[in-house]
Amino acid sequence: MEIKARVPGMIVDVKVNEGDHVEVKDVLMVMEAMKMEQPIPCPVAGEVVELRVEKGDRVRSGDVLAVVE
């Protein structure tokens, strides 16, 4: 499953690495948008197979942040 940005912003922290097992609601990363930090929770349990962003990256709405299978 592709985890996408809902709003434009900047990635301020990445909490997982590729290969990590995650559960539903685990925080994958933290994004700053509209001067507020917003955690990005995982909607499914599985393995992080791809991270497409790193700390400091700016993202647009709809950009894929990570892939969890």
Walk me through the topology.
Layout: E1 2-4, E2 9-14, E3 21-22, E4 27-33, E5 36-41, E6 46-51, E7 58-59, E8 64-68
Antiparallel strand pairs: 1-8, 2-4, 2-7, 3-6, 4-5, 6-8
Which descriptors apply to this entry?
mainly beta, four-stranded antiparallel sheet, 8 strands, 69 residues, 0% helix
Descriptive overview:
The chain is an all-beta fold and 69 residues long. It contains no helices and 8 strands. Strand 4 (27-33) and strand 5 form a beta hairpin. Helices cover 0% and strands 54% of the residues. Strands 1-8-6-3 form a 4-stranded antiparallel beta sheet, with no helix packed on it. The N and C termini lie close together (6 Å).
In short:
By secondary structure, this protein is mostly beta strands. It has strands at 2-4, 9-14, 21-22, 27-33, 36-41, 46-51, 58-59, 64-68. The chain starts with a strand and ends with a strand.
